């Protein structure tokens, strides 16, 4: 059963054994790995099955993190059919992106602070 689940994930998230670019961008930004068995839907916290382009990919060819959101099947269908829900997805996703960026900034500050302490002790 676990092997079947892994194979399904491979089919969903890979193309020719390489992850699709928009999926790579999303996974890298939020520090996910293909082996992660649970990636939360950013809207309802159910298991995400799709990386949704907030603005249609055909229109923008935009694989930037600001345009990519992990959604469960139900939220993905709703985002595709309801422009207000899609806008809500965008707002909530940008909040999540900001939280991640702030965490990275804090981490960098801590690393610099520790480096400065080490340099002073030498």
Q: How would you explain this protein's 3D organization?
A:
It is a single chain. The protein has one domain. The strands form 2 sheets. The protein has a two-stranded antiparallel sheet with strand order 1-2. Strands 3-4 form a two-stranded antiparallel sheet. The protein has 122 residues and is mainly alpha-helical. Helices cover 60% and strands 10% of the residues. The N and C termini lie far apart (55 Å). A hairpin with a 2-residue loop joins strand 1 and strand 2. The chain is elongated.
Number of discrete helical segments: 5
How is the main sheet built? Answer: 2 strands, antiparallel
Shape: elongated
Strand order of the largest sheet: 1-2
Radius of gyration: 18 Å
Topology:
Elements: H1 2-13, E1 14-15, E2 18-19, H2 21-29, E3 50-53, H3 57-60, E4 68-71, H4 73-81, H5 83-121
Antiparallel strand pairs: 1-2, 3-4
